[in-house]
Amino acid sequence: MRDKIEIIKEIYQIGDDMQERKEALQKIAPYVDEIMKAFYEKLLQKPQIAAFIPLERIEELKKKQIKFLQDLLTLPFDEKLYKRIAQVAIAHYHIKLDPLYMSYGYHVLSDLILAQSQKDPSLLPYLKLIIKYLKVAEAIMSEEYFAQKTLAESPYRANDLFVAINILHMAYVRCQDSFARMEVDKEAKEMFEHSLQELQPYRRILEEAGFNLSAIKRFCTQFANEPNKQNLEHLRHSIERPLADLRVSAYLSTDSALVLLRTMTDIIYRRNVTKEQRLDIPIIKQTIRRLLAHNFGWAIERLDFFEEEPKEECDIAKLLAYKDHIFYIVIDCADIANKLYVLESIDLILEAIKLTLYLRSKEEK
Ligand code: HEM
Q1: Would the CB of 305 count as within 6 Å of ligand 1?
Q2: Is 0.90 topped by the overall pTM?
């Protein structure tokens, strides 16, 4: 993240301008409410963008926008501010707002801010500074939007790992014949070494499973140089146990994929978070807690609910709403090798819950 911050500083020539930024905020403060009102009016005029704006949340969103502008103009330009901006990008990523619409929003906001100079031309330099910071925020949000997309697509990388492991298995099986003869089959050895090479990108994940690629390669060379019983034992020891462990992990992963599918189906079709006739917030929280505990209890390190947006860092912080009541669920996951996938799965479950809560709220209106 530091690298990105440095590049952004260079592009936008950000130096020590804290005083000027704070002054700019003071100058614009009297007009901020009016600007936000016009901002949402403009966005609502475009049906494709209006579809993303829940009318009942506009007042809350205005307040959040103003707080965002305040942070942008009063916080030092460092990792904390970068993360703050990234979180806003993530919020829009989750509602699947097209990045082009996001840019349109920035364009509208910048225009409205610049228009204030017609009232008082002396505001112009301050307004230009604010617009520069909006541009910075837009750049960070595009970057983080892209990062989220890459992250969401990452399960395909797991598929590459799956294929590479299968190839290694087959290559190892092919070596077995020559092991029995205590000889080196040159072709089988090359194939085996090639399959080890293919696994290099996953070295770290594999180490967690006791699979040390460089040790295996070393023992393989030792056996090739001196095909004797002791060297064969070393080679077998370094590979057979971890391969068996991986087979167990594959079984567990299939199981957790099934768990995810079953939970999603239960939430969406059986409405198991919203089916109580008399639904209220404590019941919803209790059900969500039970559901996540049953399915991901092994991976969750912390699960809390908050009325306000949580300030501290966490793996997942998601806004949920039932009727007019808004609350946040916060989850931290244990430091496990497949954390990324567990987080994706929990996030999917929470999205499904969010959807059913929204539908139930609509039914009751
Ligand atoms: C142009 C189209 C835009 C639409 C349709 C839109 C819509 C939304 C919606 C629906 C949310 C609530 C997300 C949630 O809590 O699930 C939200 C949050 C937010 N938006 Fe936007 N937005 C737009 C542009 C912008 C722009 C240009 C900015 C900043 C300059 C911005 C700043 C924020 C902030 C600060 C939040 C609160 C994020 C949080 O809760 O962490 N939005 N927006």
Answers
A1: no
A2: no
